[in-house]
Amino acid sequence: MKTPRIGFVFASAALIGFVFASAAQQIGQNSSTPSSGAASFQTSTQLVIETVTVKDKSGAPVEGLKASDFTITEDGAPQMIRIFEYQKLPTEAAPAIAPAARAEPFTKLPKTQIATEKPGDIRYKDRRLLALYFDMSAMPPVDQLRALDAAQKFIRTQMSPADLMAIMQYQGGAVEVLQDFTDDRDRLLRIVETLVVGEDQNS
Prior knowledge:
Order of helices and strands: EEEEEEHEEH
Radius of gyration: 22 Å
Number of domains: 2
Strand order of the largest sheet: 2-1-5
Number of helices: 2
Shape: extended
Structural class: alpha+beta
Mean pLDDT: 75
Strand content: 25-35%
Number of strands: 8
Helix content: 10-25%
């Protein structure tokens, strides 16, 4: 298994997922030799997150699996599973928001940050984290319109009760967080409605 690039992944809703992290890469670095003459080495470990859905022959989800039931390899070499978590997510979408109910845009886009999960905070347990990322500088206006329409359709009709969504945009040479992870679909729609088509074009 090759180490995947870090990014935001949009996955289809899964009833049951087993989430685990394995130590995928170790990087060793020699440091200066201390006065005692003993060699000193430093090493770091990169954790790679994988999400797995397990079903039996009839398509029913398989529950009760443990980390020992899985084997992770990288280039044929077994990797140690450091973290293993069981998640159960609903597959049904939340009731759709009527398309006729147009979201009222903000007068100014909000700016925020992604809040880190503190020890003991389980707000993300059994949640699917999604991110909408808009790079208006790389798309012509017609593609921007298509992307914004698709985002609104997803928020209105395809978000499930387990989904938390964040919105980001690339503008002015930097990534801006417009909304931290939330299940407030009305607020998400208002932010998408406020994004300006044709902004930041490199023409």
